[in-house]
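Homework-ish question, so no full write-ups if that breaks the rules, but can someone show me the predicted structure for this set?
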Amino acid sequence: MSVGLVLGTKEASPLEFWVGIHESSSLQLDDLVTVETLVPESGEMVTFYGVVDHVAKKFEGTQFDTDTSLAVHGILPVTLSHAAHVVVTRIEPQKYIPPHPGSEVFRAHGKSAERGLYFDRMEHKIPVGFNKSREPFYINFSFLNGEKGAHVSISGISGIATKTTFAMFLLYSIFRGKTHAKEISSNNHAIVFNVKGEDLLFLDQRNSKFEEKEKENYELLKLPALPFDSVSFHAPPKPNEELVVPATMRRTENVKPFFWTLRQVARERLIGFFFEEGGEDLGTLEHAISVLSDKLLTLASDSKGDEAPLQSPSGRPLTSLEDLLTDLRDQPESWYGASQVASQTQRALFRRLSQAAQQGRGLIRPLPAGTKAGGFQLDWRQKQITVIDLHTLQSGAKMFVVGSILKKILEEKEKTGSSEPRVFVVVDELNKYAPREGWSPIKSRLLDIAERGRSLGIILIGAQQTASQVEARIFANAAIKVVGRLDPAEAGHPEYDFLTSTFRKRALMLSPGSMIISQPDVPTPVIAQIPYPVWATRPEEAAVPEDLFEKLFP
Amino acid sequence: MRLVHTSDWHVGATLAGKERTQEHAVFLEELEEIVRGERIDAVLIAGDIFDHPNPGADAEKLVFDFFRKMAEQKIDVVFIAGNHDSGERIEGKARLLQLVQIHAFGKPARNTSATLLTRKDELLIIAALPFAGELRLLDWDQSANQHQGEQKSTFAERIKQLLSLLAKTHFKPEAVNILMAHLTVDGAVLSGSEKNLRMSDAWTIPSPMLPAGGDYLALGHIHKAQELPDAPVRTAYSGSPLYIDFGEEKDQKGIYILDAAPGKLLQSSFLALSRIKPVKTIRSSFKEFELHALKSKDFSGHVKAIIHLDEEDSKSGVAEHIRRLLPQTSIVLMETPQPQQNKIPDLSRFALDPVQAYRMFLESQSRQLTEDLSRKLQELMEEAGRATD
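A: Not a homework solution, just the prediction itself:
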């Protein structure tokens, strides 16, 4: 049953055409359609696949607004034009001829819908949601994992654009999907930085608001409906505590505290990450930081074990930032020595580091007796997903953690030289860590990942409210661009030029869970609806085991 | 509806070896007057009614007399076992008490809740969690490999889950919903000190982990009456109505009166008790005590005297002398100027690390924790561990 005919009153071209919709039919925005046309010379059939991006009704034979009410009362004879504009996504075989006006247009379903969006060409498809007609929508994994492209950029207003939910659903699909080989799930890992509340600390719990009928959606996408099963949670230690307990409030069970010893900070040259804040050029401070960093590295090369405190140049044991600051204040010459760092700069460094020490309280601390450093470090290879909770840290301390971890990942991957196992790094608020203006060690590493991450096996999934404020090269390097509800002022920026004008307008109206997805394989962006998450997305949604009383008090 | 929130009566407790049943009788008399005068619909007692799992006959009589008076006036009583009560004994009497609208819960279970209808036909639901210690809540096979921080995290998580389950199972939107529990919340203030309990010191639950549903959380266990402003729901410790310990000197003692109706915001106000005996600690030298005694001669409560003796003072007869000067004195402690090293340091920090605590204790007595002693200690602990299995 056709839905309409290719119109001849408007131009029909190989890139776009209009459909006159039958009286008894209708077409919605985003519907997929197909048309067949005969090539005159060879006699072969060419099939056009396209997406409806505009549909409108109009009275024909009227001139004035008041004609409408006359028409409704049967006084004025009018005909109704019901037409849709279609953007061609694929022509098989690739003969770029126009469809013949008058040809029948059909809705594309099942296999033809897949062909229309090139899903049949994708070796590994990752399901990320549905289109309007409840057909699965896929992303080509080769453009995610670095084979042909990499990196994802998700933009949208916080709270409505469901950026984090999309990122997590993408990971869920990668790790749980049955449409692709087993190797994919076992060879990929993810690191997620949790920056807002404790929402991401309940990924391994079932969502108590998940209704049974939603299960169908997961079955359609060939995904199981279960919470994540291989997740580890990490949080900085509560400051001012003797026992090392994680600084989380709503969930404490199975949240592992992490921290660095001063020796590790020295050995891995992390001190510079305490000077990230502000974003302005550090100027002379850079040299001073470098001198300090070098000195610390020398002190840490004394082949003592992890539990041993760092020995200051004057022989004092140092185990915390406060210790370091005291020694810097009391014995600056032993640190800066012959390096010609002006005393003014030394004082500036001291001031900045003191501020950082305030914020990073508890992050740099000695090992509790009888423990090993390894127990408090992050190893992303242990589980599929490693969630690092940063929300209790102030922004300077957040920067330190993100910077140190990114540095470690880059160094590890550069050493092995192999792109496997892959690690997806989810970073929210990317405009803060990689802003358009200025330079910082974190930004430089994120840029590194965006530009070289493909070959190293580090894939960035970045999210931000305003892509216009994110470093352009990072945004440009994202093969997959996703947009949730946008702010009108933001939507006008050139970063969003990959959205056609219709999609730009639609981005202002998207409801939570609907995302516009642009991927290299598909010539036009497509709107997909992500299913309701089966894992808890906030503490209130975490389901409590029903039989707990019976288990504990039999 | 109007309710009373009280807890930690500790009936049967003694002070310096002397019974306090008379004081409890005075309290229960005042409580009964309040219940009548304030037109109370139900009395909520959040644990530790008795001081001992096996209370004496006088103590029992007092409490059950009170229950009888409430039953006669058709006033509901809901109470739970605390860590001092015997949960089993309370469970044993629960079904009998149920017949006269006394709802008793001794052990945690899914169904520990009471649904009551007040005189004005308003629905009141109390979901209760009697005291559950870490021995029950932790899976010791698992916990053996966790360090203390992790064990406490699991404990807090379990309490949170149990409270959430109770709220989810029993609360109804058309009722006044109250949760009652006997436990320690992180951040509560102990009597006699400004120090907040911190997670590293005891088995606690941080207040943000408390469930958010319901109108009120009635807590027992801490003797100092206080509201917890950080909690997601109106939460308070009613505190003990009597001064159980001399450390509670500065506390205000009383009960909370709750004013509630379904759909309306619950109001609570603290009502101080007027007839209970206060406590006071007097620190003084032997010679100056007479002055203090004069100042306190009309003091109606109990006194603890800490007398600092000089080198020349002799210890004999001091206690009688003090008591003669001030008959309200129930405890006399004498401090002599002794060499500091015999003073035992505060070991409460090491409550969870017995080996360390023992080492600190020995060092305070100028001794060392030798290999031998350490091994012996480990053996004893293992034996004790096996004995409780």
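Now go work out the reasoning yourself. Hint: Chain A touches chain B through 25 residues (CB under 8 Å).
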